Amino acid sequence: MPETALGLFPDVGASYFLSRLPGFFGEYVGLTGARLDGPEMLACGLATHYVPSTESEAGKRSDGWTVAALQSLKKASPTSLKISLESIRQGRLQGIGQCLRREYRMVCHVMRGQVSKDFFEGCRAILIDKDKNPKWEPSRLDLVSDEMVKRYFHGVNDDGWTDLQFPIRSNLPAAAMAKL
User: Fold this and answer.
1) Mean pLDDT to the nearest integer, 124-140
2) Are 84 and 11 in contact (CB under 8 A)?
3) DSSP one-letter code for 126
4) What is the reported pTM?
5) Residues 112 and 50 sit within 8 Å (Cβ to Cβ)
6) Which of 18, 62, 110, 140 would bridge with 26, disulfide CB 3.0–4.6 Å?
7) Rounded-to-integer distance, Cα 80 and Cα 9, Å
8) Who has greater pLDDT, 179 or 94?
9) SS3 per-residue string spanning 67-119
10) Residue 101 and residue 87: Cα distance in Å, rounded?
């Protein structure tokens, strides 16, 4: 999940499943974009089984994860870090439907570029020019105001915009409908 490095946020329901990981592990994964190996996926509940590819795989783990995490955070878009953290925290109290609806609102704001153009800058720096040197705006966490963050979580103020709608499915059990 390298979304914050692109100026985006963990989407497609990630705020739902990341928010349910033990402790603050989901926030760590969502903000740093850390890639989890088999044992880590098993330990945090994202996998039910794991088969090592080699016997020596267990010995490869280094203690440099804190350095790598800090490097990832320093490279990421400050705006994306703040909206990602808020999204994961809101996801703790929401069902999957609410999470998907919120993430839809967020991506609509990202694509409009009215609050921040970091996604376009991240794509330029990482995918197009490949200079890996995005110029985030704002450039520091302390410059991203709470008001800027809140704007991502509201509907788009445009007459042609509609919120995410789920199809009506009468054949679902009540427990499933409650999650939407």
Assistant:
1) 95
2) no
3) I
4) 0.75
5) no
6) 18
7) 6
8) 94
9) HHHHHHHHHCCHHHHHHHHHHHHHHCCCCHHHHHHHHHHHHHHHHHCCCCCHH
10) 11
